[in-house]
Fold:
Amino acid sequence: MKPGDPEAVRDLFEEIAPRYDQLNDLLSLGLHRLWKRQAVAWLRPRPGQRLLDLCCGTGDLALVLAARLRPGGEVLGLDAALAPLQVARRRSGRQPWLPVRWQQGDALATGLADASRDGAVMAYGLRNLEDPGAGLRELRRVLRPGARAAVLDFNRPGGAMAVFQQLYLRRLVVPTARLAGLPQHYAYLEASLERFPRAAEQGELARAAGFTSSAHRPLAGGLMGLLELVA
Structure:
């Protein structure tokens, strides 16, 4: 599949949704939960806030955020694919006290009002957008001035870590996904990284989108990255 193709990306996540969480736990040894909590720590969610989880997938991060917003507050989880949202709705149905709702929509055109959110996260979504710069502009548009956003994704390291990352994807990720009947879906990871902006370019795109502050923090030895933004 062509990286960044909106229909192809949506179809991919429709197909992998039932096994997405299990494979994430297996392939990251559960560390993706730690990385997501680091994103939450940067965001500093508080009771009463209205937050956005853009490209929310199966909703694990949105639910972590929602637990921090009581009393009051709300998390909106938005994703282009329906199947992950159905998983998210089932998960939140087991915790009906959490202030979260789900909506299918386009990350490049959310339809939300300007400056309507007090903070936002995007985990493993920016890399899959047709235009990452446009995604950051839409993210900035919906945030009030001074709001924080955390964008978590794979990083593009150099040197030995780049070689290790390639081996990790080819020798561990794809063979494991093959056992689950999804080899082509996870082979897409390496192709998507080839077009993904590096850390410095992400910062440039964020500043061009109107963010007043941007810092990229490498995680997992540089295999992952957390883009910490202030609107």
About this structure: Helices lie at 6-28, 31-43, 60-66, 82-93, 132-142, 159-179, 183-194, 199-208. The CA atoms of residues 46 and 107 lie 24 Å apart.
